Amino acid sequence: MGRITLDKVTKSFGEVNVIPPLDLTINDGEFVVFVGPSGCGKSTLLRLIAGLEDVTSGQIRIDGKDATQQAPAQRGLAMVFQSYALYPHMSVRKNIAFPMKMAGVPEDEQKRRIDSAAAALNLTDYLDRRPGQLSGGQRQRVAIGRAIVREPSAFLFDEPLSNLDAALRVGMRLEIMELHKRLATTMIYVTHDQVEAMTMADKIVVLRAGNIEQVGSPLELYHTPRNEFVAGFIGSPKMNIFGGNPAQQHGATKIGIRPEHIAASTETGTWSGVVGVAEHLGSDTFLHVHETGLAETVTVRVDGELPVRHGDRIFLSPDESKLHRFSEQGLRA
Amino acid sequence: MATQHSRAAARLMISPAVLLLLGWMIVPLVMTLYFSFLRYNLLMPGMEEFTGWTNYRFFLTDPAFFDALGNTLLLVGGVLLITVIGGTLLALLLDQPFWGQGVVRIMVIAPFFVMPTVSALVWKNMFMNPVNGLFGHFAHFLGLEPYDFLSQAPLASIIFIVSWQWLPFATLILLTALQSLDQEQLEAAEMDGASALSRFYYIMVPHLSRAITVVILIQTIFLLSIFAEILVTTAGGPGTASTNLTYLIYVQSLLQFDVGGGSAGGVVAIILANIVAIFLMRMIGKNLDA
């Protein structure tokens, strides 16, 4: 009840081709995250699935039925918008009731669903307030509540957490994941934040310029990125990627090594460099090492206690088994 | 920082401006009040004497007063109804993307720049005149008898002319309000299964309520004192069929030379305008609260 298939879907705005032919299957109950840099077409793709934009060609099937020409409301999907898009003149209760009112759900059934959604989302005390009187996190929960009561076959989230502050974002992230476990409904989630993608997804779809670069579980993407773009995009801090001599020694045009797979030492190592900025997180320290002859900056994760200072010489040794090799086309070799 | 001292200094320094404005308002008001208690006729100069409430009694018992009162309310109400409904529909239309949008928007606003006397004369002579007017010619073309708008339906004709002038104002304000509506709200409503009509009723109308309030309040101020359109088209006639309060006061003081009676009418008009204002604020003022 929530299997969405995109079959050679394209989208152009006038002359500009935003989505080239694209195939994708989202299975029932999956939590799928669309991730990519700004302007990669991930929101457009979500809006195509929602029906808020018309596809230029191709087919969208929901549970096997062709939904390409269906109006948004008929597709049985619910969407949570980045700006929450709550109706400011209605109370929280009326906001949540609105989709049921439009669908002609009986009053007592409406009340039952509102009460259960409000209880699940901790909104019971706020039902008679207006959205303007709520905090960002509460508004977000109202928007989710409005989506839940429709009992949709899939939820669509369009960067729902980007307007929240960092602490609240982590909390809401957990709440959404909890909700997914409880409802077991398909969820499609758009974000540009790869940390959100890694922590929440069953399946990540990495997009660039409308193209799917790779589809896979978070760890698949982390361990075996299909190309240089995915390698650089997934992981925080970014993977170190460099070409030249050291790459050729490993038989590749370019090689990539994650900061956490480089060992640092003050005495010996494969490469040497000068310590620049150190970012102390307590558990770890990220060192930005310069003058290595590899790239302008190499990021290294070291133990929080390593006694190095700005300007010190440091030696780096990559874990050879964790090295990623890329061909000339940027593909994984 | 506004200390006690600097605040006192600020008050001292703005006081000349406040006093000037106060005097500007008080002097004419007091003079009108004073004249309204005088027997003061321009045909009998130098014969002014205090008459108490006589002017008020004459003005308020004049059958023309009740006609004028009804006409004023009809005029204000009719024009408000037409401009708010028509303005909303036009704003919805102009909010759609179409070719030549910029030019059309300017053309829609144009009537507002035509001065009232001119627009009323244009309507009177070029459209509504049964002999030379376009409507007369059109009626001839259909083989019908031309309709003499300004003598058969004088008040309705004036309401129409004034609406034509004020429709752009309402359209403009409502259009800007419509453009400030968050598109995601409309999309959310669409996802929620609201039809175009429900989206208009549940999302757009509440969003427009504040702008509509502003339109109603501002227009009421100006519509209560409509004068030029009546003077150049019907001169208040036939009889008192298109006389409003403003025009009645003009007739009283400048055509009948009765300054005292006109002043009494002015004071009555002030009181009535305030009653209308109180009613309006009671009814729709809550829309202005954030």
TrEMBL record, chain A:
One of its GO terms (molecular function) is ABC-type maltose transporter activity. SUPFAM superfamilies: MOP-like, P-loop containing nucleoside triphosphate hydrolases. Pfam families: ABC_tran, TOBE_2. PROSITE patterns: ABC_TRANSPORTER_1 (PS00211), ABC_TRANSPORTER_2 (PS50893). Residues 4-234 form the ABC transporter domain. The keyword Cytoplasm does not apply. InterPro entries: AAA+_ATPase, ABC_transporter-like_ATP-bd, ABC_transporter-like_CS, ABC_transpr_MalK-like, ABC_transpr_MalK/UgpC-like, Mo/tungstate-bd_C_term_dom, NA-bd_OB-fold, P-loop_NTPase. It comes from the Bacteria. Gene3D superfamilies: 2.40.50.100, Nucleic acid-binding proteins, P-loop containing nucleotide triphosphate hydrolases. The keyword Lipid biosynthesis does not apply. SMART domains: AAA. One of its GO terms (cellular component) is maltose transport complex. Keywords: ATP-binding, Nucleotide-binding, Transport. PANTHER family: MALTODEXTRIN IMPORT ATP-BINDING PROTEIN MSMX (PTHR43875), MALTOSE_MALTODEXTRIN IMPORT ATP-BINDING PROTEIN MALK (PTHR43875:SF3). Belongs to the ABC transporter superfamily. This is Sorbitol ABC transporter ATP-binding protein/mannitol ABC transporter ATP-binding protein.
TrEMBL record, chain B:
It is found in: Cell membrane. SUPFAM superfamilies: MetI-like (SSF161098). The chain crosses the membrane at residues 12-37, 73-94, 106-123, 155-178, 208-228, 264-284. One of its GO terms (cellular component) is plasma membrane. Its main location: membrane. GO terms for biological process: transmembrane transport. It comes from the Bacteria. It is a multi-pass membrane protein. Residues 69-280 form the ABC transmembrane type-1 domain. Pfam families: BPD_transp_1. Keywords: Cell membrane, Membrane, Transmembrane, Transmembrane helix, Transport. InterPro entries: MetI-like, MetI-like_sf. Belongs to the binding-protein-dependent transport system permease family. This is Sorbitol ABC transporter membrane protein/mannitol ABC transporter membrane protein. It comes from Salipiger thiooxidans.
